[in-house]
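for the writeup, i need someone to sanity check this before i put it in the appendix. the sequnce is what the collaborator sent (i think, or maybe the updated version? ugh). structure was predicted straight from it, no edits. if anything looks off just tell me and ill rerun, i have time this weekend
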Amino acid sequence: LRFKTMARNQEKAMSMLSRWYTYQRELHNPGGPEKRPYLATECHSLQDSEKWRLQIIKEIARKVSQIQNAGLGEFRIRDLNDEINKLIREKGHWQDRIVELGGPNYHVIGPKMLDHEGKELPGNRGYKYFGAAKRLTGCQGAV
């Protein structure tokens, strides 16, 4: 009987703490976190387009660092690789939108994939393999 009372008081405390955190989040960020538009064409601000492009670059960097771990398992590695390629495609859409809005052309000034001599690789478009995904079976011929 005593444990039920203690558990109930702890539940009340956690509930109050949870409500306080929720209140603080709403106070400092009304309306919740802003979501990236599904289509880049839905964004009409150059500043917002740059913000979303940088957010995508951060997501790509985070996922590329995660995929370096070969111990994740084949399915998780394949999923991460698919997500990275999807984000790269999405980043291209945002870069196109930035050019449409009068911003810099990141396709021209951005980093290129180079070979060991420093020449740009021909046909480096399309699906790419990152980190541990390069060592998966079925990927060796494509890399």
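The helical segments are 2-28, 46-67, 74-100, 106-109. The radius of gyration is 22 Å.
thx in advance!!
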